[in-house]
Design brief:
Layout lengths: L6 E10 L9 E4 L5 E3 L4 H14 L8 E7 L11 E9 L4 H12 L3 E6 L8 E2 L4 H4 L6 E3 L4 E6 L4 E6 L3 H10 L4 E6 L14 E4 L16 E4 L4 H14 L4 E4 L3 H13 L4 H5 L1 E2 L12 H17 L2 H5 L14
Parallel strand pairs: 10-11, 10-13, 11-12, 13-14, 14-15
Antiparallel strand pairs: 1-2, 1-5, 2-3, 4-5, 6-7, 6-9, 8-9
Length: about 325
């Protein structure tokens, strides 16, 4: 089983101490040496790539291999951790099995359960059993009875991005490889670039603020339109809804102060207004170029995704002068 149609699935099955990545991360290795995904880079990944190539080199090769490494003594790395990596070889004969899993994954995050022994695990798709699906917080968990529960496909956070100006375009690109499902809104004709990231859907709705009612609970809202009046309408609708853990607005401290006053006149109380993140992004990054601002916003969105309360303890709008996010 070599050449076209072969692949090796590499998985971090266990990780203890300081390791490059957590249990459950994967990469796919192809016969031509190409691969997608990463288990952390460095010497560990280099060894895994070499082992994967060996499994696809022809002859009587096993379908499954497990390697264990202490990162310090075995690999000469400063990390003090220990990892176990599994390698599963698949070929043309496995096409129907892989196709079934791939089709299920296209519908969204996929949960499987398997018994991991000496050979390659056979994964069964978990359907309708929330008790099993609920046992896993990340993408990999080993149960007390030895079975392994895994989740495939990235769990994404819905994000409504209002505005397709310079920063909006840069932010859409910055979010392309990240775990966000973007609804990108701008009412202006020809506002969007010719190439749209695969995780984004564009909308030319003439009343963007009304889309807030369609956003699912828990969605993130990022506001950076061409119009302060439109920004205000969207921010007011998002804050009034009290359904969104992140409502960010591009602008300076002066803009924030004016919006606070106007939002109060519109009937929002101080607690609702205090949830507005403005200036948007991480204040420690001073560069005002669109790409740098987008990077700082993307980083802030990742923080909010991991721990929404983290932003409450360190409000990003407490800056000197007139701020650095001008809209």
């Amino acid at each position: 089983m070599t050449g076209y149609g072969s692949a090796v699935l590499v998985t971090v099955a266990e990780a203890k101490g300081s390791s490059p990545r957590e249990a459950g991360v994967r990469m796919i290795v192809r016969p031509d040496g190409g691969f997608s995904g990463t288990i952390g880079g460095g010497t560990l990944e280099w060894i895994a790539l070499a082992e994967a190539q060996a499994l696809m080199s022809g002859g009587s090769r096993p379908e499954f291999k497990r390697i264990e490494k202490a990162l310090g003594p075995d690999l000469g790395q400063c990390c003090g951790g220990w990892v176990a990596v599994t390698l599963e070889r698949y070929g043309a004969n496995d096409l129907s099995y892989v196709h079934e899993l791939a089709e299920a994954e296209r519908l969204g995050p996929l949960t499987t359960i398997s018994v991991q022994g000496a050979g390659r695990p056979v994964r069964e798709i978990v359907r309708g059993d929330e008790s099993i699906a609920g046992m896993i917080k990340g993408s990999f968990a080993r149960l007390a009875d030895g079975r392994v529960v895994e989740r495939f496909a990235m769990s994404t956070t819905p994000l409504y991005l209002f505005g397709a100006g310079h920063v909006g375009r840069s932010l859409a690109l910055a979010l392309a490889p990240l775990p966000f499902r973007v609804t990108w809104v701008d009412p202006r004709p020809n506002a969007f670039p010719p190439h749209i990231p695969s995780n984004a859907a564009v909308m030319n709705d003439i009343e963007p603020a009304k889309l807030i009612a369609q956003a699912p609970d828990g969605a993130f809202i990022a506001i950076m339109t061409h119009s302060h009046a439109l920004d205000l309408d969207i921010a007011a609708a998002a804050l009034k809804a009290e359904r969104f853990p992140y409502v960010g607005l591009i602008g300076s401290e002066t803009k924030r102060a004016r919006f606070e006053s106007t939002l109060a006149k519109l009937g929002l109380d101080a607690t609702e207004v205090a949830r507005l993140i403005c200036p948007i992004g991480l204040i420690h990054i001073k560069d005002k170029s669109p790409a740098a601002i987008a990077a700082s916003i993307a980083a802030q969105l990742l923080i909010a995704r991991d721990d929404p309360e983290a932003l409450r303890h360190s409000p990003p709008y407490q800056v000197a002068g007139d701020g650095r996010r001008h809209g």
